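Ops channel
N.P.: pipeline sanity check, posting one input/output pair.
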């Protein structure tokens, strides 16, 4: 059985006005059978606490379904937000999509080990 990986690439400002839409997009991917969801933050210019809250709720949803949520390409502002809230210890964070694609996806343990390097 192959692992189903889905990519989501939000853009602009991820705040309260976009949080519901963002969570809905992730929920749709979970319902479609995604095992791993990669959120590529390459085009996100700013994220506030509402955006972070939506991301945390999405993580809980994905994990409850037996999947994994991974993020990549976070900018300096998002990185600082993750560090201040200790979310950098909760989420698997890859430098970019290429590094994620290189990582073995057989298990969550492999992903976690690769993302921290």
């Amino acid at each position: 059985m192959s692992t189903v990986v889905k990519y989501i690439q939000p853009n602009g400002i991820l705040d309260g006005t976009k949080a519901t839409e963002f969570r809905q997009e992730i929920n749709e991917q979970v319902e479609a059978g995604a095992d791993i969801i990669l959120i590529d933050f390459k085009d996100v210019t700013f994220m506030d606490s509402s955006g972070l809250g939506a991301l945390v709720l999405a993580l809980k949803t994905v994990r409850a379904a037996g999947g994994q949520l991974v993020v990549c390409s976070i900018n300096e502002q998002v990185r600082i937000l993750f560090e201040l809230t200790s979310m950098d210890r909760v989420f698997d964070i890859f430098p970019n999509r290429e590094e994620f694609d290189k990582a073995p996806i057989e298990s969550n343990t492999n992903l976690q080990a690769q993302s921290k390097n």
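N.P.: looks fine end to end. The chain has one domain: 5-115.
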